[in-house]
Amino acid sequence: AFGNNAFVAVGDDGIIVRSTDNGTNWDNATTDNSTNKLMGVTFGNNTFVAVGSSGKIVKSTDNGSSFYNMTSPTANYLTGVTFGNNTFVAVGYQGNIVKSTDNGTNWDNMTSPTANYLIEVGFGNNTFVAVGASGNIVRSSDNGSSFDNATSPSSEHLWGVVFQE
Q: Fewer CB under 10 Å: which end of the chain, C or N?
């Protein structure tokens, strides 16, 4: 993820690295997450949020220098996270969808229209779209308050979705 002139990457064993020189040099961020695999990271409203195994959610408000654990409403893997309309939305295993409307501090479970794994989520045109296992696509046009299934032309796993202007 990129924000405030910093790149942040996440990985196994809770590793979080960041670069403030366009990716030339990287250093480890300070984190109180030492065991959970982190699988997704995003930036919005001057905040980095990363998600991972066992429902792990961490956030940084100092340009990715340090990350702190947030209370998660799920113990399921969270694999993707995005930001839009002042809302963070994360998705994961067993159709889990969680969202935060207070800059990533508090998170709530949302009702999901699927039990299939959701792998990635994106935001564009005032719509959150998540994709995942068995070609599953779900979308929300009410700022993540409710999600509906969208018709997918594929039964293959969908691994990513992004919107860019």
A: C
One DSSP character per residue, 5-62 reads TEEEEE-GGG-EEEESSTTSS-EEPEES--SS-EEEEEEETTEEEEEEGGG-EEEESS
pLDDT digits (tens, 9 = 90+) for 72-124: 999 999 999 999 999 999 999 999 999 999 999 999 999 999 999 999 999 99
- Report CA 31 to chain centroid distance, whole Å: 17
pTM over 0.85: yes
**Partners of 130 in the β-ladder:** 121, 138
Compute the distance between CA of residue 165 and CA of residue 31 in angstroms, rounded to an integer: 32
